[in-house]
Amino acid sequence: MNNKQISNICCIGAGYVGGPTMAMIAQKCPHIKVTVVDLNEQRIADWNDADLDKLPIYEPGLADVVAEARNRNLFFSTEVDQAIADAQMIFISVNTPTKTYGVGKGMAADLKYIELCARQIARVAKDDKIIVEKSTLPVRTAEALSTILNSTGNGVEFDILSSPEFLAEGTAINDLQVPDRVLIGGKDTERGKAAMQALVDVYANWVPLENILTTRVWSSELSKLTANAFLAQRVSSINAISALCEKTGADVDEISRAIGADSRIGSKFLKASVGFGGSCFQKDILNLVYLCQHFNLPEVAAYWEQVIKMNDYQKHRFAKNIIDKLFNTVSGKKIAFLGWAFKKDTNDTRESAAIYVADELLQDRAEIHIYDPKVTKEQIIKDICHCEEERRGNLPESETTKELLKRVTIHSTPYAAMENAHAIAILTEWDEFKTYDWQKVYSEMLKPAFVFDGRNIADKEELTTVGFDVYNIGKGK
Ligand SMILES: NC(=O)C1=CN([C@@H]2O[C@H](COP(=O)(O)OP(=O)(O)OC[C@H]3O[C@@H](n4cnc5c(N)ncnc54)[C@H](O)[C@@H]3O)[C@@H](O)[C@H]2O)C=CC1
Ligand SMILES: O=C(O)[C@H]1O[C@H](OP(=O)(O)OP(=O)(O)OC[C@H]2O[C@@H](n3ccc(=O)[nH]c3=O)[C@H](O)[C@@H]2O)[C@H](O)[C@@H](O)[C@@H]1O
């Protein structure tokens, strides 16, 4: 079957990766029927909502792509078995979070959702299929998948490919439309090569062939973890330098510009910040560290673990600086948070630095007033509760989560969040934060009025002239 053209694709998992990736394939390949399935009924209902503002993911440009392809050749459904049975190629794009129990707890990737998919495919499939790992997985997962899929004894054969996704949230549509590269890993056998070619042919509908890389499966799987580790390492490296800048009076943005001009270093991903967030950097590095430990490479494991430790330090440093500058206590003080998402142009809050900064300030009994242009109130409450419960799991506290939430207010306008505040903390680099009437904000705040810019986006000179006491990441006073 492998040499025939693919006309029916199924994707299991309608999340941040499955949804946009399949929408792009459907838009670019009108001859292919693409069905995205998920167990989460609400998520599928949201993907099918006539009101495109209700799509479950906020991603610039996504609504237009969905509007063009949906119900033409793009379908969202909870009929998982049917979609599996009909498809020639099945993408697995389910979540692979860090394990929270048992062996590898807090480090290894939890592959239970992947395994469930494999078992379901094995049970349902009546003809040969190509299985594409889209989720980020530890190296050699394809081997485990193959064992499960090929153990039914019913003669159905599966070819397993690894094609990790490199899109970043907030720029997903552009990343999918013009990817730096598409990576496809497969077996070096006739069947393996034919399966890889079938997937190359799908992407070749819009991606130049020279940007479609084919490798062995293990290299493809490990490339994904490596790419995220290198990216996160750059952020931790520049954040480490930001701490030194604050002590010495050097300016981290000037340093980024200076070192980024060296073509061997490159200018991207050198923006010092309150710390990286997002669902993947931490989880993927922990997974890499676990793999290194598993293969008895403790020095390599320790090397990569430091990237996470530096990120934790950066988040803590930011929160501690707020407490220090507010005369060593924020108890009863109103701190306005601008931004809750882990970066701009997304409603995703997973591992957002804002959550950890809020948690530290709440422990010091601050009153937090939060405004984010895209994150819902329910999500913010959920994040705070989850963080609090996780922390209390290790360290019993006298205060209950309910009491703690009394000191959290979520606003639908930025000015209300900042009114009568002692300090403003900028946690996300949303463009609109640069456009506020700072004179008005200042006149409505308590004095001295502090701004802690965790993203270095505010105009420090303007704010200082207005009267604010401004603290940046990586800029000495
Ligand atoms: N979020 C991102 O920007 C990126 C994520 N990745 C990787 O892609 C994978 C998916 O990530 P996200 O899309 O962010 O996760 P997500 O949590 O947004 O979506 C995963 C979806 O899979 C569904 N699911 C889980 N088990 C299922 C099953 N057995 N049958 C049907 N549906 C099932 C869940 O209900 C959920 O809607 C992860 O491995 C992640 O590391 C890779 C690149 C970028
Ligand atoms: O595997 C994944 O999930 C994805 O992880 C990242 O994408 P994402 O987390 O969506 O967003 P990034 O733009 O990488 O930002 C991650 C975090 O680092 C922070 N960051 C990024 C760049 C920078 O210079 N400084 C900085 O603090 C961001 O604010 C954000 O909190 C990678 O960039 C993607 O290639 C990858 O596919």
TrEMBL record:
Signal sequence, start to end: none
Reading the lineage from the top rank, the first entry is: Bacteria
Q: List the InterPro entries.
A: 6-PGluconate_DH-like_C_sf (IPR008927), NAD(P)-bd_dom_sf (IPR036291), UDP-Glc/GDP-Man (IPR017476), UDP-Glc/GDP-Man_DH_C (IPR014027), UDP-Glc/GDP-Man_DH_C_sf (IPR036220), UDP-Glc/GDP-Man_DH_dimer (IPR014026), UDP-Glc/GDP-Man_DH_N (IPR001732), UDPglc_DH_euk (IPR028356)
Q: Which reaction does it catalyse?
A: UDP-alpha-D-glucose + 2 NAD(+) + H2O = UDP-alpha-D-glucuronate + 2 NADH + 3 H(+)
SUPFAM superfamilies reported for this sequence: 6-phosphogluconate dehydrogenase C-terminal domain-like (SSF48179), NAD(P)-binding Rossmann-fold domains (SSF51735), UDP-glucose/GDP-mannose dehydrogenase C-terminal domain (SSF52413)
Enzyme Commission number(s): 1.1.1.22
Which segments constitute the UDP-glucose/GDP-mannose dehydrogenase C-terminal domain? Answer: 336-460
Per UniProt, which keywords does this protein have?
A: NAD, Oxidoreductase
NCBIfam families the record matches: NDP-sugDHase
Q: What is this protein called?
A: UDP-glucose 6-dehydrogenase
Query: Which species is this record about?
Result: Paralabilibaculum antarcticum
